[in-house]
Design a protein that fits this description.
Elements: H1 3-26, H2 36-59, H3 61-71, H4 88-92, H5 105-118, H6 140-147, H7 164-169, H8 194-211, H9 215-223, H10 256-278, H11 286-307, H12 313-335, H13 340-366
Helix pairs in contact: 2-3, 2-5, 3-8, 8-9, 10-11, 11-12, 12-13
Length: 368
């Protein structure tokens, strides 16, 4: 079972079950599935709801605490389109449920996915201007503004496929000629650790809540904007927001041996991930898939710490490799998920890694 599929079964499953339940019991109209106008309604309806989902993700603080993962990259390229929060879908699918009053579930599911697929290609700096299409569609030019942390870029251009919603509801902003767009969060987390990037903002949100004196202000921290403070409008005031005009991109230089180690273990994680996604039925146990997914998350966290040059990276990697040898390898072997040759390679790689980290930790402690 693929980790992505596991998450989708939970979040998308809840979303689709809720949608189908409302459609079966409370729909106001029954639109013919083979009528072209039903498909046109799906295109417009899904994109309209996406606009409000996306806008809420920026303007409601506890939603932004999850959505910020997508904006935390200081680069802007196609990979950013795949940089997503683990928990965001749990918090936003309710925005699509009004469509269940008239739109068949099959149309909603199809166009929901098509809407998200479209948005991948607009994460690029290569495409400059698409002429007349800029008035109708969300394009790379518009989405660059959305991902900028310059003051003029904040809370702008929320559209999915169409940019007309931003033009209608006052959130549209043109890209300014001659002004470099700075990407990432206003306060950059400066880390490659995926678990830290998923959770650090939620910790900051809870911390801000704790600083408030009244219960009313404590609750307001969650449902008002990220820049709100007591006495300010819901989204804060521009004069108190940080205007980022320049930034050195976070890029810790890593030695060659560390890059080789990272490439090796990322390759092992990628292969395990691929096996889970392409398994034809032998992998059904929750224990097995859960153990391998846990190891993959653990490994990616360790890789992020190595890229960050964290002082705890060696200890974390040693613990992970030991745990893999003691637990994960045995589970994978018992279930016969992977070929024996692969398991042998993985075993030797983790044993060698354990030996390396023991020597490394001893050496660093003696010769810091």
């Amino acid at each position: 079972m693929c980790p992505i599929t596991t998450r989708s079964i939970a979040s998308r499953g809840a979303e689709h079950w809720s949608y189908i339940f409302i459609y079966d019991n409370f729909r106001l109209w029954s639109l013919a599935w083979d009528n072209p106008w039903t498909w046109y309604a799906a295109v417009i309806g899904v994109d309209f709801c996406y606009y409000w989902v996306h806008r809420a993700n920026h303007e409601v603080h506890f939603l932004w605490a999850q959505h910020q993962v997508h904006h935390s990259s200081e680069e802007f390229n196609l990979v950013v389109g795949l940089r997503q929060s683990i928990f965001q879908h749990w918090l936003t699918f309710i925005f699509y449920l009004p469509l269940a009053l008239f739109l068949p579930p099959s149309h909603f599911v199809a166009h929901h996915q098509l809407n998200l697929i479209y948005q991948l290609w607009i994460h690029t700096t290569v495409v400059k201007d698409l002429g007349i299409l800029e008035y109708l569609l969300n394009t790379p030019k518009h989405h660059r503004v959305h991902h900028g942390c310059n003051l003029y870029c904040l809370d702008k251009n929320y559209g999915g496929v169409l940019i007309v919603w931003d033009r209608l509801f006052g959130t549209f902003m043109e890209e300014r000629v001659g002004e470099e767009i700075i990407y990432g969060l206003v306060s950059s987390p400066r880390s490659f650790n995926p678990m830290y990037l998923q959770t650090f903002y939620t910790e900051a949100l809870i911390g801000k809540c704790g600083e408030m004196k009244s219960l009313r202000d404590k609750l307001a921290v969650f449902w008002k904007g990220p820049s709100w403070f007591p006495g300010a409008p819901r989204l804060g005031l521009d004069e108190f927001k940080i205007n980022v005009t320049s930034r050195s991109i976070y890029n810790v230089k890593t030695p060659g041996w560390k890059n080789i180690y990272i490439a090796l273990h990322f390759g092992l994680v990628f292969y395990a991930h691929r096996q889970l996604c392409t398994d034809k039925g032998s992998l059904t146990g929750i224990t097995t898939s859960g153990a391998i997914i846990t190891n993959n998350i653990f490994a990616l966290t360790g890789i992020g710490m190595l890229f960050d040059d964290s002082k705890y990276a060696a200890t974390v990697e040693l613990a992970r490799c030991l745990l893999f040898i003691a637990v994960f390898e045995r589970i994978a072997g018992d279930e016969a998920i992977f070929a024996t040759a692969y398991l042998n390679v993985v075993s030797y790689a983790h044993i060698a890694s354990c030996c390396f980290w023991v020597v490394y930790i001893f050496w660093v402690s003696k010769f810091p």
